[in-house]
Structures are given as structure tokens and as C-alpha cells.
Amino acid sequence: MKKVVWLSLLGLLSFSSVDVAAQMRPDTMRIDSVQVEEYTGVPTVPEALLQERLPKLAKTIPLPYHKTVHGFVDHFLYRKPSYTRTMLERMSLFFPLYERMLAKYNLPDELKYLSIVESGLNPRAVSHAGAGGLWQFMPGTGRDMRLYQDDFVDERMEPVKATEAACKYLRDLYRIFGDWPLALAAYNSGPGTVKRAMRRSGGDSFWTIYDFLPKETRAYVPQFIAFTYVINYANDHGIFAESPEYPIPFDTIHVNSYFNVMTFAKLSGIPNGEMYKLNPHVTTGILPPHTRDFMLRVPSDQFDFFTRHRKAILDSASTMPPILDHMLLADNEGVVYDSTTDLDRFSLARLSTQQPLAAPVSSGLTASAANTPALNDEPEADDVAEVVQAKPKKITYVVKKGEGLFRIAERFGVEVYDLKKWNHLSGTSVAVGRKLVILNEVGETRAETLADQGTPKAEKRAKTVAARRPARVRYHRVQPGDTLWNIAQRYDGLSIEQLKKANRIRGNALKPGQKLIVG
């Protein structure tokens, strides 16, 4: 028999045994009773349909059916359809670039779906471990791949350069393993981890070494397969891109000194959102005095206005406040970047010191899985496969007078789009007295977390959660490669200014091992 629990709205977030009425703030919340129970009625794609369709989608990379694949398909089609919709809307921003770059390096076109697993197509995403950008390079690996990083510019966030680096890295991994599922596993956890799993298991394919891989890697390739299906068949399951995003036509200007990007945008009549979208690798809104030959993208629509007022705008944007002068120059002492490194030779040299595990693609190449770190080496705090396989809680909520879907979705911390899909609604109005099904998930996948990072939705959610939990101090231990911007990105709702103020930091320099207050 299912256990039915009656909880207040506030208690829904934690399902705590604490007296939820005592946690209420009477000036902003009133007690409502809702029914919560384990939910086993989430729709599922028929297994036979997946087994029929997956082989038809397979081109170069095999797409076999597996129960973990099935779990991810159901999760993103029925439990989190809003995430799939968002991916459909962002595809037009990045997929044309991916397709061109993959073709340039003669790589399988379907690798474009990997970026969904990595970052949720969010170029400014930064994981808790410090991996950043669309392809989630760790700081050290990014520098190895000639992606420049300092406190002001992070080329891991630059879509073109990061995508080219990812293509070269994936090409090198395939040269090592001669097998795409193994190369993908190595992209996630490092070739050394994959080689050890092969040695321990005696297997030579992803599925034969599956049980010997880290939890996250076991879920990684199934997610890739699932998204390949989900993106291609989303429309068949009633999910469509409602507001597709498209690249902004742009011109460029060369920056060779201090430059305040936000001042420039304001004086040129350019919305901040467009400047961030065109230049996601500019992490702080300013470029330091040592900047040379930086190509700043400017929306073509505003370029004529800028040209007519060029001198006045550039003079204002290039004038550095006196208080910043010595600070910026001091903070960037010791920035080293070797622009002469041959990327192809260097990246392969890190991977290639012994005989390959499988025959290399090109003659003359030797490779091994050594101990090269993963691009996005994440701690195994959460098993994403367990997230999608766990049964969500079903909340049955009775609509009250004056309530609409937007208000209900906000109170329960869910997306309006998901609320509509769960209840087969076409509009946002709902009749008083109607019972709504709301799914309260046990967690979210890494891709979902990163997809929202830096968006208004994430900031709003962070404020809501912060208002409902007891205040406690959180700390962050600075790791090599950390910057103020990267750290701020990892903690929702935290700005660089807040981080500096809380820790009494005047400049931008950090030291590995330094303990920072982050909340």
C-alpha cells in the first residue's frame, strides 16, 4: 500500500520530518495541504520502439539499446520535457558550427550531441570541479589545448576555439582506442581510467568494461545515445522548439588595451545579453591593459551606430579608472601563454607514449592511455543513472481560486512547460478545483544543472532555496586554475563583487589552497 503523506508546500522541497509549519513565514506563505505519494505512472517509450529506431539512427557510432539508455530517454521526454525543449531551441546556435568543424576533422556528425551531455549547450557553464564551456574542458587540459585563460578571458567559453579543441581531442582519443564508445568514455573519465577498466575486465568494448568504469562514465555513453534519440524524435513525442535561438550576425573590432565591454555596449546601444552571447569568453566585462589583438564581436545591427560615434565610444570604453590601474597590472604578473606550441603534436604527445590499445587510424601514430586526466573529471557525488531510475514523488494539488499555472509552477519550483506536459494542458489557465499532477524529482543530471547556469531561472531558483534554508557559511578551497569568475559561476546567485567583498579581496589574484567564503 502506498504511503500517503500530507505536507505543507514548503516541506515539499525536502520531505523533512521537521515541523514544516514552524518553518513557514506567515507574511509570505500560507499552509496548503497536498497529497504526496510514490509515482509509478510516468509514461515510458515502448522498448520495442527504441529497439527499432536506435539502429536506424546509427551512422558511424553504434547506438545499442540498454536499460540505462531507456531510463534517460524517458527522463528527458516525460519527466523533464522542458530540458529537451531548451536543447531544441539552442541547437540552431551551435549545431551548424559543430557540423562544420566535425566535417573538417572527418569525425562522425553525431558527435554534436555530446555537447548536450557535457554542458546543456551553455557556453558559460562551469562545473563544481572547474570544467568550463560547451565542451567542459578542465583548466589544465584547456591550456594544453591552447585555450587561453586568465581572470578576464577564458577561451574554453569561446565556441569556435573550444569546438576545434574538442574535435582534435576526440580525434586523438579515437586514434588510441579505435572505437567510438571507448573514446567517449575516455573523454569523460580519461584514457587511463578506460585502459585500467579494460585491463581489469579483459573486455575490449564499452559494454564489456561497463561494470569496471566509474559510475558517471557508465551513465555518460548511455546519455549520449539517449540524446541522439531524444533530439531526433522529440517532435514525435510532442516536444517542439517554441522559441528557437539563432546566431547573431556580427562584425568585429580589435582591442589592444584596457577595455570596458559593458561601457562600450551601453554607449553603442547594444543589450548586455547580446554582448555576452557573442563574447561568452569575456568573463568579467572588462579586458585588462595587457590585451593584444583581441577580436571583440559586435552585433551588425549596431555596428553602423558605433562607426559614426567611434572615437567618443572608444575613448570612454578605453579609459581605465585610476583605482584599477595598479591593481590590474599587478594581478596579471606571471600570466604565461606559449603560443608556439604545436597543438596536434602536443596533445597527442600527452596521450601517446606507448603502443595503442587498438590499431591507430593513421600510420606512424602510437598512443596509450597513460594517466591523462579527464576533460571534465567530476567527483562522483551523485550517480546520474540513479537520478533517472529513481521513482519521483507524485504531488496531487488542487487548484484554488485566482491561481494560474505560472503561480503554481513557481511555488513548487517546476517549469510551466513540464506542468503542462504532465497534465496534458494546452494553455496556462486552469479550472478551480482541478487536480494537478506535479512530479517532485530526487535530483537532476549534471547536464540539467549546467544548462541553467547563469540564467535568470537559475538565479531565481537560488534565491528561493536560500530564503527557505537556515543560513550557514559555505567555503571553497581554491584549486590551481581557479579564478574569481569561475568560482562565482559554480555557486548560484554569487557575483564576483560579493565574493570579493565577503573575502576582503581587492584585486583578482588567488592562491591555490586559499579558503574563500562563498555563501
Proportion of beta-strand residues: 5-15%
Largest beta-sheet characterization:
4 strands, antiparallel
- The helix/strand class is alpha+beta
CATH class (first level) name of the domain at 47-243 and 343-351: Mainly Alpha
- What is the subunit arrangement here? single chain
- What overall form do the CA principal axes indicate? globular
Helical run tally: 23
Major sheet strand order? 1-2-7-8
User: How much is the radius of gyration in Å?
Assistant: 25 Å
Q: What is the helical fraction, as a range of percent?
A: 40-55%
N-to-C span: 42 Å
* CATH topology type of the domain at 47-243 and 343-351: Lysozyme
Low-pLDDT residue intervals, each spanning 5 or more residues? 1-31, 325-373, 377-382, 465-471
- Round the mean pLDDT to the nearest integer and report it: 80
User: How many β strands by DSSP?
Assistant: 10
Architecture of the domain at 47-243 and 343-351, according to CATH? Orthogonal Bundle
Q: In summary, what is this structure?
A:
The protein has 519 residues and is α+β, with helices and mostly antiparallel strands.
